[in-house]
Amino acid sequence: MAGDSPSIQALRDLREASCGPVAGSADGVPTVTQDLSENVILTSLDDLHNWARLSSLWPLLYGTACCFIEFAALLGSRFDFDRFGLVPRSSPRQADLLIVAGTVTMKMAPALVRLYEQMPEPKYVIAMGACTITGGMFSADSTTAVRGVDKLIPVDLYMPGCPPRPEAIFDAVIKLRKKVANESVADRRQLKQTHRYCTVAHAMTPVEPIVTGAYLRAETQVAALKPGAGLPMPALETADAVQTSEPS
What we know:
The chain is mostly helical.
């Protein structure tokens, strides 16, 4: 029965004829051709997943103050940020990028946190403008401006300026894309931020009120506010009196 078995060379010829699409060398070993190397990509699941995410960041169509005017300029044909794969979404459940553009007040803070929590993971935040990062010009004497949006939600990238130009937003998005490209699915749980408060507390000193009501309680004001009281009106001079008073 040993004579009925095919030879090694016959098996190689059968393999090359039936299931050997790759051209072989003289000794029967398959070789990778130039055409095959240009059409086959070897990568990892993390790189493929990150490449798909960084090429399709969907920002939330949301703004709080004047920095949103610069962000809205990107929607036009002059800057055209759709070429970066950024598609603005009106629903937080379909967005993965939150660009906080403008001053955040304490009245708007609960709505901002609610929108952030409705966004699916993984999600990213860009703090746009000085007022968003530190409170800006309102950080000295305003009682309603939040001194930094990172008191409310975690921030991935800070973009200073007052306001930043649309080109600065492009630069911030490119830096964010580099961060997304280096992420790993296995390490995402370890890199997730566990707290929100990443900045200093408010340093506000209480002062005595300037308007105390002492002006309204003054005697002159009380007398003037009595019924029938009024300021004395000057006497009106007639034309005849003016003529007699002139020197001859």
